[in-house]
Amino acid sequence: MIGIIDYNMGNLASVYNACLLLDTKVEIVKNPEELKNFNRIILPGVGAFADAMSHLNETGMKDAIYDFAKSGKPMIGICLGMQLLFESSQEFGHTEGLSLINGEVIKFDKSKMHEDIKIPHVGWNKIINNNSKLFEGLEDPYLYFVHSFHVKTTKNNIIGETEYGYKFTSAVNKDNIYGFQPHPEKSHNNGIQILKNFSKL
Q: Can 147 be counted among the known catalytic residues?
């Protein structure tokens, strides 16, 4: 059973509808006390990092996510939800994150890019992956991205990278915790396959 965390930030309906295509029960979870009842959780998110951390604190979800992470059951952060897994973000100043994975969230460095490349990174792009279980069954892993910031972390956490002006980290895994910068719920069959793979971890 998959729980999708509702903390007043973003793309709940589209993630929920995508998960309905999986062979498992899925629910949107607003009460932090109920998080422990699920086998897997998804931390979605669209918007600003600082606002998201405030909502996680205000709703009590921050502590519930820590407890779930300690349980060893799989969890995945999507887009902003992935970025929240890290120690901090540079977006609108310095904001501390959940610190479940070491690293920080940084803005795309325009000085490393051709002047024609636009920020934010919007549209379809490919993940170069290391054959993680999350990518099983994907022959041509093009997925849909919308973001201006990306994570910077150590090599041992990286399971996927994408080229946009330069190579950046687009998928991570540390123990039972996964993060995914593109939107699987907007990535058609490839995205559904990734969610299926997550549901079987």
A: no
Instruction: Give the predicted TM-score (pTM) of the model.
Output: 0.95
H helix or E strand, kind and range, residue 142: strand 142-147
Which domain does 121 fall in, by range?
2-199
- CATH code for the domain of 12: 3.40.50.880
Mean pLDDT across the stretch 50-69? 96
| Residue 11 scores a pLDDT above 80 | no
79 is catalytic: yes
Per-residue pLDDT at 23: 84
Helix (H/G/I), strand (E/B), else coil: 45: coil
Catalytic residue among 91, 121, 147, 185: 185
- 19 token code pair: 């998960």
Active-site residue, from 19, 34, 79, 139: 79
Give backbone dihedrals phi and psi of 193, rounded to 5 degrees, phi first.
-65, -40
